[in-house]
Write a structure and sequence with these properties.
Layout: H1 3-22, H2 28-45, H3 48-56, H4 64-70, E1 92-96, E2 102-107, E3 114-120, H5 134-140, H6 151-161, E4 164-169, E5 174-180, H7 185-197, H8 202-222, H9 226-237, H10 258-268, E6 274-281, H11 284-295, E7 317-322, E8 327-335, H12 344-354, H13 372-378, E9 386-393, E10 398-407, H14 411-424, H15 431-448, H16 452-466, H17 474-479, H18 483-494, E11 499-504, H19 513-520
Parallel strand pairs: 2-6, 7-11
Antiparallel strand pairs: 1-2, 3-5, 3-6, 4-5, 8-10, 8-11, 9-10
Length: 522
């Protein structure tokens, strides 16, 4: 049938419909029949323009669907009146439940999803040789619950909500992080609390034994450098406290049954160590009520019920791990300061000043090309493969130093470069270089606080460490750092006992620890 015939039949059909509609005494059923017939006629024949475009295989650029799909997203929609909302400063509200749990919320800055988390003041430094690997075991099975839900339901809830839920831990903190839309907060929060505080079941413990062993095998293949860092901490603090490995002692993983894990939870988790945070909530009081309804049952910690965290004692020393590799990896670190010390900002500027040669790119200043590890080590010495600063801070102590790697047959030269670079930090720093390092540090801080979830996590850890929020003063405190302060903190740590770790080929032929210490003495 040609286009002309289609058009004539359509016109004829519409004429018949119009005549029928003129009859005023049509019944309700007849009117419904007429409307149905009219819609069917339009669907069958369509418009002449549409049929013509189909024959020519062209798009109808006047069709609303076409206009919506091809509209420039940069331009405002015609006739659309958007709802504007000015940028608002984030406000923090802090409350404490009767049992000791601290609740902190960040006001809604921009309409978005809700990020919330549960921070527990428990880390691998709280593990012992008996419970080493407990946190890894919990992480590998953190979805597994048995009292209210199970692993399948928990995972399905997160997927149906379109959110996220994960667990991370370090030497001092364990953090469960979740995100979802406003209407799913209650369900996801209750699920997160079950995953965080429910005693580990026999099934979860047995599954974790197998998964934890595979985790160790995986990290051995990936060569992430975590084992080398664990060796640094074990050498600096011994096999206790901060010296306990992040992934646990490999030989102890099979001993982590349900009884051992439950005992670890009972001795280390109590309401005074729990911080619940949320960002993007509209009402602080309502969120506090939600936390109270779910976690209010937790009793206050009684004297002797929980184990107190022992203070880590720095011992220093050396560790040499001989391998068949043709390369060698060296690290020289010293005891620095805890988070609460005023010198913390000088050490962070030092870390930005040295930087990492691995972060080098041609993108411009601030991307590693002006870091001393790049300009003084990587670019000047052909045998240097990589170099980076080491900067760790905890609640009662810290570590600062330098790591360098290269061919094993240049090990003695690498040590000279390593010690020379650290000793050079006692000399006056050029103002331009110091300003650049401070700007890099401030930029890194601001970028780390851009995301809502990262910002509320940092605010919670900030509150736990200092007892108050000091986020707004970060940049101001960095600006106050001077070259004299940087020189002073470096000279102070270089006069103490170092920790030296060497891994690779011919490590036993490297200079002794006393000789290395003499090289860095001011």
């Amino acid at each position: 049938m040609c286009i002309r015939d289609r058009y004539q039949r359509r016109v004829h059909g519409e004429q018949i419909i119009n005549q029928i509609k003129k009859v005023k005494m049509l019944s309700k059923a007849s009117r419904s029949f007429v409307e149905t017939t009219a819609r069917a006629t339009r669907r069958q024949f369509g418009s002449l323009r549409r049929n013509l475009l189909e024959v020519l295989n062209r798009d109808d650029n006047t069709d609303p669907h076409y206009l919506a799909a091809s509209y420039n997203p940069i331009l405002p929609l015609e006739g659309h009146k958007p709802i504007y909302r000015e940028n608002q400063k984030a406000n923090y509200n802090i409350s404490k439940l009767s049992n000791g749990i601290t609740v902190i919320t960040e006001s809604q800055v921009f309409p978005s999803h809700v990020d919330f988390g549960i921070l527990v003041d428990v880390g691998t430094r709280d593990e012992t040789t008996e419970t080493s690997g407990a946190l890894l075991s919990i992480k590998n099975t953190y979805y597994k619950t048995v009292l209210n839900t199970n692993e399948t339901i928990n995972y399905g809830m997160v997927q149906m909500a379109g959110g996220e839920f994960n667990m991370e831990y370090d030497q001092e903190n364990t953090f469960w992080r979740a995100s979802c839309l406003q209407h799913d907060v209650v369900d996801i929060f209750r699920m997160a609390c079950d995953c965080a505080f429910e005693p580990r079941s026999v099934v979860a413990a047995n599954v974790a034994m197998d998964k934890s062993q595979h985790t160790h095998k995986l990290y051995e293949q990936l060569k992430t450098g975590q084992d080398f860092n664990d060796t640094i901490f074990r050498t600096a603090f011994g096999l206790r406290g901060l010296g306990m490995p992040l992934k646990g002692l490999k030989h102890n993983l099979k001993n982590l049954n349900a009884y051992v894990l439950q005992k670890f939870q009972y001795q280390n988790i109590n309401p005074s160590k729990v911080y619940v945070c949320a960002a993007g909530v509209e009402n602080h009081e309502e969120f506090v009520e939600l936390v109270e309804s779910k976690l209010g049952y937790m009793p206050k910690a009684e004297s002797g019920q929980t184990s107190e965290r022992a203070r880590s004692e720095y011992v220093g020393g050396e560790a040499r791990i001989l391998t068949e590799s043709n390369d060698v990896n060296l690290a020289l670190v010293f005891q620095s300061v805890p988070w609460s010390a005023q010198e913390i900002y000088a050490f962070n500027v030092l870390n930005a000043l040295l930087g990492s040669s691995a972060s080098f790119s041609s993108g411009g200043p601030g991307k590693g090309m002006h870091a001393r590890t790049t300009t003084n080590l990587l670019n000047k010495h052909y045998y240097v493969d990589s170099a980076n600063a080491l900067n760790f801070h905890f609640s009662d102590t810290g570590l600062f130093g330098l790591q360098i790697s290269g061919p094993a047959d240049h090990g003695s030269k690498l040590i000279q470069n390593l010690t020379g670079e650290l000793k050079g930090l006692t000399n006056k720093i050029d103002q331009q270089e110091l300003t650049r390092a401070k700007n890099i540090l401030k930029s890194n801080i601001m970028q780390a606080l851009e995301r809502q979830g990262d910002r509320i996590e940092e605010a919670t850890k900030n509150l736990k460490t200092f007892g108050k929020l000091t986020l707004p003063q970060y940049a101001q405190n960095v600006d106050t750092v001077t070259s004299e302060q940087v020189n002073a903190v470096v000279a102070k740590i270089l006069a103490t006992k170092p920790t030296f770790v060497a891994e690779g080929g011919v490590v036993n032929s490297l200079p002794s620890l006393d000789a290395i210490q003499n090289l860095v003495k001011p």
